[in-house]
Structure formats: structure tokens, C-alpha cells
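Exercise 7b. C-alpha cells:
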């Protein structure tokens, strides 16, 4: 039978029955049914509401990007792993999430620069504090670990800025270098625009 014949004889009823669980931005959870016997085509059934308007990922992200010999990037999950931090030779930790996490104050020097991961956040206003802290890390020959919560947008934006300043890189070159070491990096649009603008100025 030719493909054309198969397509012309196709019937929706031959599709496999399925259901999909959906979580909306408001946290509402429902199941969407398709061709199920117990529900008409396309009907939805509310199953609950969650506190979080996203699917929780309970697997820790312990992947760390080595950007420079004294500069590392990752997620907040790494901050709770003392052995990993010691293994990496970390001496200073810069937290750019909104939550203040200093699990081992006796082992590391901490700095907290609170940032929201939204395009409207004034990133450039916060970067000076980050640069001052990194300058101190270099002065004492230390090693810095920069993190936010997921290590995808805020912390990478800071690290990109730091190597742009230190190595006089363009945004594109700095972004490429950071992305190579931590492939999951994805800056929000506002951060990218601000860093490109700073680069031009």
C-alpha cells in the first residue's frame, strides 16, 4: 500500500488512546484526555493544584563549569556538597539568587548579591559588587564559585561579565566560552541585552 493510500484511509479512531498531565502557570494541574472511552474527545479533568507553577526537578544538578582556573560556575545544589567544593579548591562563594545560603561559613568566604531572574532586573547595577568580590578573590589567590538557583541565567550572566572585564572579551566570545563549560546556560533576554549594551559602551 502506498503512502498516499495509507493517508487517505487514515481514521482518527485508529490512534492510540492517551492522556497528558498538564501544569499551568498558575499551578493548576489537570489531565487532558484524547479519545478515551471514559471521557469525550478533548475533555479535561482537574486533579489538583500545586504550590509551584512548574514541574519540580528533584535531581540535584552537580555539574560544575570550570571557566578559569580560579572561577567556577554552577547551581545552588553544589553549595551543599562540602566535599565537592573542597575538591575543586573553592575558597570563596558568590550567591546571586534571592535566597541567602551560607552552609559552611567556617570553610568559605561568602558574598550575596540578590538578583531576580527577570528581564527587567537591573543587572548592571549589581555587577560592580560582584566584580569587587572577584577582585578580592584574585588578590588572595583564591578560587571563586558563582551560583544562583539553577545556574542557568543569573550566575552565568555574572561570570560572563567577569571574564569580559578581565580578558577584554566581546559578549559573544565570553558567552561562547561559558556555554562550552556549562552547556545548560540560557540567559534571560534582558540580561543578554544589558551585557551587549555594556560591551558596546
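Sequence design result:
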Amino acid at each position: 500500500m502506498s503512502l498516499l493510500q495509507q493517508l487517505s484511509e487514515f481514521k482518527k479512531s485508529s490512534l492510540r488512546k492517551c492522556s497528558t498531565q498538564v501544569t499551568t502557570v498558575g499551578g493548576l494541574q489537570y489531565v487532558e484526555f484524547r479519545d478515551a472511552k471514559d471521557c469525550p474527545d478533548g475533555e479535561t479533568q482537574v486533579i489538583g493544584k500545586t504550590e509551584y507553577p512548574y514541574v519540580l526537578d528533584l535531581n540535584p544538578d552537580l555539574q560544575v563549569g570550570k571557566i578559569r582556573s580560579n572561577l567556577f560556575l554552577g547551581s545552588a545544589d553544589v553549595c551543599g556538597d562540602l566535599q565537592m567544593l573542597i575538591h575543586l579548591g573553592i575558597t570563596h562563594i558568590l550567591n546571586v539568587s534571592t535566597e541567602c545560603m551560607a552552609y559552611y561559613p567556617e570553610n568559605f568566604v561568602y558574598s550575596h548579591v540578590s538578583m531576580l531572574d527577570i528581564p527587567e532586573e537591573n543587572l548592571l547595577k549589581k555587577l560592580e559588587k560582584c566584580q569587587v568580590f572577584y577582585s578580592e578573590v584574585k588578590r588572595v589567590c583564591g578560587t571563586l564559585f558563582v551560583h544562583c538557583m539553577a545556574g542557568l541565567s543569573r550566575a552565568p550572566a555574572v561570570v560572563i561579565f567577569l571574564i569580559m572585564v578581565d580578558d577584554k572579551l566581546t559578549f559573544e566570545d565570553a558567552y561562547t566560552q561559558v556555554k562550552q563549560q556549562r552547556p545548560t546556560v540560557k540567559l534571560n533576554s534582558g540580561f543578554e541585552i544589558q551585557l551587549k549594551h555594556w560591551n558596546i559602551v
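Instructor comment: The helical segments are 3-8, 82-88, 123-139, 154-167, 171-181, 189-200. The first strand starts at residue 18 and ends at 23.
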